[in-house]
């Protein structure tokens, strides 16, 4: 993970005060441990199990096993430790507030506050992962199953659109993006999924993008996407469809048709600008009378730190990667404009 991406390992000083530590004392075996962490996904093949390539999982298990929190070989026995990931990310995708949980028999008589730094010290020296905090309980907490919503962002260079005129951006924001909100059939927005597959029905609560802003002299917009769950490549194809609408490849009516059982071909947007922002647990949090570091599964006190990290680390990294690879201009020329959205007659 060196070369052009080596700059991401440089330490950036964050000035936002860190939240209060979790002083919960682990007294019983096994303990259910929930880890809250962030990472730059460049160079990794996603958050997944794959022994042949470097993944976020492989770095995490190295840190967990070397620190003694999990026994050696746990990577191959994930079921026995009830390993659970809140939201998988694909190759190259980043995360601001990711969550995993597992069972550990190795950490009795330890405070939760000791765990993050213990893992961080034992991660690979070039790892981009940062363990921020954790929760420890005696009861299982499957972070994937208990999640109510997932929030993603996508940092898109403004030049990907056909025009930077404010009226044109308002058209995309007001007439195209809202078409995705609600429950729809997203079989066209993933790979190899039959149009009648029930799992292709997904519910989107928010889909829009903000005002234009500048990073290192280049203009960008930030997309905001919130839903219960997402299919493989779904978000990247949703934003790809917005860019297609920008070039008048599709009308609002055709965008709506793409969310039915009709079949259409949509180009896959590069993953470089995509990152997981937050996992939400509304049902669980609504039952808490007094959220504190011992029970706040959303780690809300960390949001100011995350926001500073995005501005100082993540956004500059994405912008520098895009500038070095010129991936979006290449995609626009060789994919979007050469192979426009096409409806297939069956």
From TrEMBL:
<keyword id="KW-0819">tRNA processing</keyword>
<dbReference type="InterPro" id="IPR020095">
    <property type="entry name" value="PsdUridine_synth_TruA_C"/>
</dbReference>
<dbReference type="GO" id="GO:0160147">
    <property type="term" value="F:tRNA pseudouridine(38-40) synthase activity"/>
</dbReference>
<comment type="similarity">
    <text>Belongs to the tRNA pseudouridine synthase TruA family.</text>
</comment>
<dbReference type="InterPro" id="IPR020103">
    <property type="entry name" value="PsdUridine_synth_cat_dom_sf"/>
</dbReference>
<dbReference type="Pfam" id="PF01416">
    <property type="entry name" value="PseudoU_synth_1"/>
</dbReference>
<dbReference type="GO" id="GO:0009982">
    <property type="term" value="F:pseudouridine synthase activity"/>
</dbReference>
<dbReference type="GO" id="GO:0003723">
    <property type="term" value="F:RNA binding"/>
</dbReference>
<dbReference type="GO" id="GO:1990481">
    <property type="term" value="P:mRNA pseudouridine synthesis"/>
</dbReference>
<dbReference type="InterPro" id="IPR001406">
    <property type="entry name" value="PsdUridine_synth_TruA"/>
</dbReference>
<dbReference type="GO" id="GO:0005634">
    <property type="term" value="C:nucleus"/>
</dbReference>
<feature type="domain" description="Pseudouridine synthase I TruA alpha/beta">
    <location>
        <begin position="178"/>
        <end position="282"/>
    </location>
</feature>
<keyword id="KW-0413">Isomerase</keyword>
<dbReference type="InterPro" id="IPR020094">
    <property type="entry name" value="TruA/RsuA/RluB/E/F_N"/>
</dbReference>
<dbReference type="InterPro" id="IPR020097">
    <property type="entry name" value="PsdUridine_synth_TruA_a/b_dom"/>
</dbReference>
<protein>
    <recommendedName>
        <fullName>tRNA pseudouridine synthase</fullName>
        <ecNumber>5.4.99.12</ecNumber>
    </recommendedName>
</protein>
<dbReference type="GO" id="GO:0031119">
    <property type="term" value="P:tRNA pseudouridine synthesis"/>
</dbReference>
């Amino acid at each position: 993970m060196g070369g052009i991406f080596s700059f991401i390992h440089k330490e950036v000083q964050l000035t936002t005060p860190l939240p209060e530590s979790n002083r919960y004392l682990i007294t019983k075996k096994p303990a259910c441990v929930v880890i809250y962490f962030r990472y730059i996904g460049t160079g990794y093949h996603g958050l997944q199990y794959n022994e042949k390539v470097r993944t976020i999982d492989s770095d995490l298990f190295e840190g967990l096993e070397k620190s003694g929190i999990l026994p050696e070989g746990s990577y191959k026995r994930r079921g026995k430790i009830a390993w659970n990931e809140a939201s998988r990310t694909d190759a190259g995708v980043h995360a601001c507030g990711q969550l995993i949980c597992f069972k550990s028999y190795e950490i009795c008589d330890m405070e939760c506050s000791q765990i993050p730094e213990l893992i961080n010290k034992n991660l690979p020296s070039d790892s981009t992962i940062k363990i921020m905090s954790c929760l420890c309980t005696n009861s299982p907490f499957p972070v994937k199953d208990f999640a109510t919503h997932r929030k993603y962002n996508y940092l898109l260079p403004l030049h990907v659109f056909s025009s930077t005129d404010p009226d044109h951006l308002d058209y995309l924001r007001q007439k195209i993006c809202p078409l995705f909100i609600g429950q729809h059939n997203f079989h066209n927005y993933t790979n190899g999924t039959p149009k009648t597959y029930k799992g292709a029905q997904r519910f989107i609560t928010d889909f829009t993008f903000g005002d234009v802003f500048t990073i290192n002299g280049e203009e960008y917009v930030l997309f905001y996407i919130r839903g219960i769950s997402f299919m493989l490549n779904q978000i990247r194809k949703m934003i790809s469809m917005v860019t297609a609408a920008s070039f008048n490849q599709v009308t609002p009516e055709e965008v709506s048709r793409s969310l039915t059982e009709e079949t259409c071909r949509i180009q896959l947007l590069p993953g470089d600008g995509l990152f997981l922002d937050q996992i939400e647990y509304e049902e669980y949090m609504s039952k808490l009378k007094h959220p504190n570091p011992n029970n706040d599964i959303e780690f809300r006190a960390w949001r100011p730190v995350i926001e500073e990290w995005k501005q100082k680390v993540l956004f500059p990294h994405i912008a520098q990667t895009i500038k070095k690879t010129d991936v979006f201009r290449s995609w626009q020329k060789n994919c979007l404009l050469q192979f426009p959205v096409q409806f297939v007659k069956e």
